[in-house]
TrEMBL record:
The chain holds residues 1 to 294 of 503 of the full protein. It is found in: Cytoplasm. Its main location: cytoplasm. The lineage of its organism: Bacteria, Pseudomonadati, Planctomycetota, Planctomycetia, Pirellulales. GTP binds at residues 106-113, 188-192, 246-249. Involved in targeting and insertion of nascent membrane proteins into the cytoplasmic membrane. Binds to the hydrophobic signal sequence of the ribosome-nascent chain (RNC) as it emerges from the ribosomes. The SRP-RNC complex is then targeted to the cytoplasmic membrane where it interacts with the SRP receptor FtsY. Composed of three domains: the N-terminal N domain, which is responsible for interactions with the ribosome, the central G domain, which binds GTP, and the C-terminal M domain, which binds the RNA and the signal sequence of the RNC. One of its GO terms (cellular component) is signal recognition particle. Keywords: Cytoplasm, GTP-binding, Hydrolase, Nucleotide-binding, Ribonucleoprotein, RNA-binding, Signal recognition particle. It catalyses: GTP + H2O = GDP + phosphate + H(+). This is Signal recognition particle protein. GO terms for biological process: SRP-dependent cotranslational protein targeting to membrane.
Length: 294
């Protein structure tokens, strides 16, 4: 994971480490290499600019340049700036109401339905009783897929194959969840291969009508700048308050993670690190920065 970003940054650090004491020209060369590494890893230009702004002055300041080991100080700076850019995170989920509604949205194939199952499993481990709701009425197979996942997790799945109105399905599901003593309702909404107005209108209607406590966007971490663009569009239409980035176990360049946070300003809550239903982790900027730096 993050292979190329990691390798490129390591290369930049190695160049600096080999030099012992550094001149301003050495440091500027190191900074240029870091900038290049980020751009090559799919981090958007704006984010790279902000990142470089955050470290350049300090890297060239006396505290770093006159330190015993300036290269180590420089690596520390890069690490801290990565953490700043990825964070802050909101710890856990606020599930203080009797019934808490989480609306999951995203493009088809991003990993939304799988993530619904993973989230339900995570909640069950925390002794919270969730209900999964099949609100993706676009593809009949989506309802079946959620039932299969629900069975694997051991959680109740609400669906209504005769109802063609996703808003009504969500409303009925919330009523059923209340009756069944579920504390969290996870809505698996419809995805599309590309963003279109009909999809956004449907999501907005559900959002207005059901008033979820959390609206999470699921984005595919392997799709680089496409993930960033879709995040921007969803954020414009809905008031997102969390992002789940999936497929970070694959050979991803990782830059999307940095850019999505920047574009939406919304915290990354979870990361998907595999196809298995246990492969969901709370997002930790410190851990992620450490992984990027290797
Ligand atoms: P949806 O269309 O957004 O609901 O996407 P699905 O939940 O059906 O997932 C699409 C594909 O991505 C499936 O094959 C999932 O197993 C896979 N997938 C989902 N999350 C992850 C992840 O974190 N890592 C990997 N490797 N695959 C994932």
């Amino acid at each position: 994971m993050f292979d190329s970003l990691q390798d490129n940054l390591k290369g930049a650090f190695k160049t600096l480490r080999g030099k012992g004491k550094l001149t301003e020209a050495n440091m500027r060369e190191g900074l240029k290499m870091v900038e290049q590494s980020l751009l090559e890893a799919d981090v958007s230009y704006d984010v790279v600019k902000e990142f470089m702004h955050g470290i350049t002055k300090e890297a060239l300041g006396e505290k770093v340049m006159l330190a015993l080991e300036p290269s180590e100080q420089f690596i520390g700076l890069v690490n801290q700036e990565l953490i700043n850019l990825l964070g802050p995170v909101e710890d856990g989920l606020n599930l203080s109401k009797d019934i808490n509604i989480i609306m999951m949205c995203g493009l088809q194939g991003a990993g939304k339905t799988t993530t619904c199952g993973k989230l339900a499993k995570l909640l069950m481990r925390q002794k919270v009783k969730p209900m999964l709701v099949a609100a993706d009425l676009q593809r009949p197979a989506a309802i079946d897929q959620l039932h299969v996942i629900g069975e694997q997790v051991g959680v109740e799945v609400y669906s209504d194959r005769d109802n063609k109105d996703p808003v009504q399905v969500c409303r009925d599901a919330v009523a059923k969840a209340k009756a069944d003593g579920c504390q969290v309702v996870i809505l698996d909404t419809a995805g599309r291969l590309a963003i279109d107005e009909e999809l956004m209108e449907q999501l907005k209607t559900i959002d207005r009508d059901v008033q979820p406590d959390h609206v999470f966007l699921v984005v595919d971490g392997m799709t680089g700048q496409d993930a960033v663009r879709s995040a921007g569009a969803f954020h414009e239409a809905l008031e997102l308050n969390g992002v789940v980035m999936t497929k970070l176990d694959g050979d991803t360049r990782g830059g999307a993670l940095l850019s999505v946070k920047h574009v939406t300003g919304v915290p990354i809550r979870f990361i998907g690190v595999g196809e298995h239903l246990d492969d969901l982790e709370f997002f930790r900027p410190e851990g992620m920065a450490g992984r990027i730096l290797g």
